[in-house]
Design a protein that fits this description.
Keywords: Oxidoreductase. By secondary structure, the chain is of the alpha+beta class. It has a single domain, classed as Nuclear Transport Factor 2, Chain: A. Helices cover about 25% and strands about 40% of the residues. It has 3 helices and 6 strands. The protein has a 6-stranded mixed sheet with strand order 2-1-6-5-4-3. A hairpin with a 2-residue loop joins strand 4 and strand 5. The longest helix is centred in the first third of the chain and has 18 residues. The protein starts with 9 loop residues before the first helix and ends in a 14-residue tail after the last strand.
Length: about 160
Amino acid sequence: MTEVLTFTDTRVQRAIALIWREAEVLDAKDYPAWEEMYTDDAMYVIPIDPDTDDFAASLNMVYDDKRMRHLRVERMMQGYAPSAVAAARTVRVVSRFTVSEVSDTSVTIRSAQILNAFKRNAFSTIGAEMTHTIALSDDGDRISLKVARLIDSEDAVSASGFLL
């Protein structure tokens, strides 16, 4: 008999709470705190091909391991990069959670994210299908994989001034 994955499972609740916390941290532009939310071997990926699961063999807008996430955070905080100058103010809404896998050590959840941004007197809205794998630990849960599949990933993308 297949186990029904429910939102009453405390492991799932912990994972969703971390995903919401990540959205809050990014909206607050607390990039060092965001960086700490990831495991050392985590990947942060924004693929161009909306159907790929082979990120290493595909072209991606973002394909960050720990080192690249750190460099991205440094750029966002320095103020010299185009993405950091007049960084966008953002509000994220993450919803429509679907539980894919649950074990005692990890939870994989798919969700939808709508990101509203305001930069240089202009509003923009970005939609994405999200996948988070959360590593569960008594020492604190962390993100081990984040994939943001933008609904317009195959179109031209300008410098955004925020992290997804």
